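Purpose: get a first structural picture of the assembly so the mutagenesis plan has something to point at.
Setup: three entries, given in the order below. No constraints added.
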Amino acid sequence: MRISFFKYSLSIVLLSLFLASNIFAQEQDLSNYRMRFRFKSIKQPDGSRILEASFVATNKKDRKDRVPVYEADINFLNVLGEEKVPLGASKTSKEGIARITLPEDQYYLKDEEGRITLMALFKGTEELDGEEEEISIKDIHLDLGLIEKDSIKTVQVKAHTLDSLGVQIPVEETDIIISVEGMLSKMIIDEGTIEEGGYEFEMPIGLPGDVNGNITVYAIIEDHDDYGDVVQKNTESWGILNEQHKEDENTLWSEAAPIWMYVVLTILLVGIWANFVYTGIHLFKIKKEGEELELKTENE
Amino acid sequence: MGLLSGATTVAGATLLANLASEEELQASGEKIRVLTPDGKMVEVDAESINNYPEAHITPAESRKGIPDRKFVMVIDLAKCKNARNCVESCQKAHNLDYNEEFMKVQLIQDHEEAEPYWFPKPCYHCDEPPCVTVCPTGATFKRDDGIVLIDNDRCIGCKFCITSCPYSARQFNWSHKPKFDDTSQPYSPETSIPGTEGTVMKCDFCPDMLRQGKLPYCASSCPMGVIYFGDKNEDMVTNGEETVRFSELINDRGGYRHLEHLGTKPNVYYLPAVNRQFPLERGFDVEEDIIERYKDVPFVQDLKSQGKI
Amino acid sequence: MNVDSRKRELVKEFSPMLLKSTKWSKIWIGILVGFVLWGLAAFVIQVVKGHEVTGMRDNVVWGIYIINFIFFVCLSYSGAFISGILHFFKTPWKNSISRIVEIITVVSLIIGPIFILLCIGRLDRLHYLFLYPRIQSPITWDIIAIITDLIGCFIYLYLTFIPDFAILRDNSEDVPEWRRKLYTFLAIGYRDTPTQRNRLHKITRIMSAMIIALAIVAYTVLAWIFSLTLQPGWNSTIFAPYFIVAGLYSGVGVIIIAMYLIRKYFKLDHYIRKVHFIGAGVILLVISLLFGYFTFSEYFSRWFSHKTHDADLLNTLFNKYFWEFIFANYIGVLVPIVILFFKRFRTIKSITFAAVIAVLGLWLNRYLIVVPTLETPYLPIQDTRPEFIHYSATWIEWALSFAGIAAFVLFFILIMRLVPIIPMSGIIDYEREGKGGTYSVTQYQLK
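Result (structure tokens, whole complex):
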């Protein structure tokens, strides 16, 4: 017991020493950094909403020198006037990002315009000042239709918001990006603006899609003042199948060799070994003859 | 008050201790700096290598390849300025020494009249790879997704593949190095670490990253977006910033493959160095030792005689 | 003529070679063993420290090990080839040299593959060649060819030894017991009866034809290791016949040198006579002309068409390797031709000198095929480390090379202690067929 207490206190002392030196070494560094706290909302295709706060210190002199804040507690709140409803909390990752996902049927406090005010809050510690960031967005309903109009493959985007009475209001003047999903990234195929609640364009031809010929199209509103980030997607088997890479069989570079190689090698080896065996048999006969001779001479 | 600050210290200490032990565990990993809520800057392992030990691909599994993919790389020579980020990030990820480069940046001058250009050269992962053909044990193999890998558990070190590769893409581990003893992660041909003495190694197209839906290190680290990578089956390649159709890129920009006449059918394409974005000289902003490599190129000799480098 | 007494006479004549060891022979063996031990030490260092101790690096991954490998293996193949021809066509003057050729064949086929093993990074995984074979790889073909050839050569060599073992068994009154037992075992009851003799002659003849075929196949496969790659200096359609001719060139050369040394040290002047040297010299002349022709064709077509990468290679050869090129491909070919072409230059010593030049030139020719090609890859070497740009063998590699040569000579000497270097049965056969009249007369006159 005593020993463990001793150990414990010693380790604390050592660690605090280590910490103290650390603080000393880096305190002056911190003054060169500006804290950047950002907050955004991303509405997902399934109707859920991601709230994402990024917390990064950037060097005032060297912009490339970015240091993410790690393990900071971030609280997410829904605000209406004086009322604050906590939505959840998360710690920042090594990239300085804290994230929570809210389900589609999440209840939000809205003002009379239908705006939802969301807040990300860092309470602050002794060394770091508190941060808060507020965004105010309208819940947008984005529909992405992949339809064939006169046998022309068309991407059709429809967007509306709901007012407090539940009346659909078409969305106006909103930039939208249309892209298709790839293995490593999304490829932008069109950029346009939603007018009168809709936008449509002709799908480029010749895209292969995935192995089943399915193409997944995304419609994305990015960083909009009123709607935040909104993502919608839809999949249709519009792909023109690329000729799938055939498995190489019986080539020089596959596991199994071309058949003729086996044949030739076998013929060669069998021929040669037949000869060796033939020689062996005759040697054996010579030996036998020798033994017979010996027997004969012994008998005589 | 004193008690309170003591508590903070302890809390901070545990956090730091956690970080430290994590560092010990993954000594080979890449480090990044982060700021703790206590205002301390500490180094932690970047979330890169083998964060998913359950996703470890054994040598036997690595022979199959990622289903229904056919990987291609497109290198835009017009944008390369020999920043060497591709080389360095690759070295970091594959735990390579200073002179061990899976990705090399060469200075190529096609003929006397032509201005030389920077030429990043990975393994070309040929469709008809001469290295695979000559391997007597099947230690190097061609996968269905187009990637040519080496299983250094199988390699006997005959070096025949090195002599038969016309692109000098392969390297040999000439002696034992302490880094080979690092068993913090199990060997996989998909990561090429740890290396083994007396075996061959080369660029592997980072299948471990591809399985996570990420770009190979060289492509993601290039500040100029020189290196596009993607799946030929979906006809898309990306350099991390923009994604374009592979067929359009090749057709519109005159994409070609190096030494096409050899018939190896590489999966690495080049876009010619036309309308360059940087003057060639920008590429000489590297270490003296690196510049020295290019001393046989006539253009470099001219620059030297003019005292420009 | 009584065959049995003639046999006894021959055994008496050759037994000093088999049994007595002089002071000089002991010293020689001591020196050779010393070289082998030096090589073993080098080998241990290489195993412990890795291939870093050699001069080989990423561009030149094959150095003088592989050159020695080709050299010895070619020597063996050409030995088999020549020996097969001698037997198959019943060449009149074959008897005195056929055993030399056979021993060269087998010994070099044991030494050669050791050099390829030195090239291999992971000797502990050698069995993977059989566990995971890929028959597309020329290395696999080469392994099959070498093993098959080695077995064939052993069988063949043994067949030619049997009659002599029998003679030694029957006339071993005053030799140690173990020797007699060994001879009895190895002679497998061969009594030189007409049926046995005919049987043995038949299978020896078939094996001699087999050996020729095997040698050609194995040679070709060896050449293909190089010519099937895309390297500018290697990818050549004439490489297989070129290697065959080059192998014969070095083979005949080494045979002449061996004849000279054996004749000198064992005082076999009446068996290995000037006529043998002249015969071998004329063959060497023919082969050197052929070899020169192939060498010229090979480089001339590269020079004339001068594709970029061929031109780069020739540039390396004519600048970095100028003197080596001159020695290997001019002196190494022309000097033997000049010496052997003119009748009055054809003395035993000059023919041996020509052979030495030929062998050295050929070894260098091999060096020039392997190293400069690897130093001139398609993409220029852009490196700052001198050892990665230019290959130069380290003492480890040289020690092992000389150990290989020493082991070759040592094995040769050991086999010569087992059976006489001149096949006694051959002499008997020759005399029995009645053609030997002049032969034996000459010998008796000499005595």
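The longest strand of chain B covers residues 71-76.
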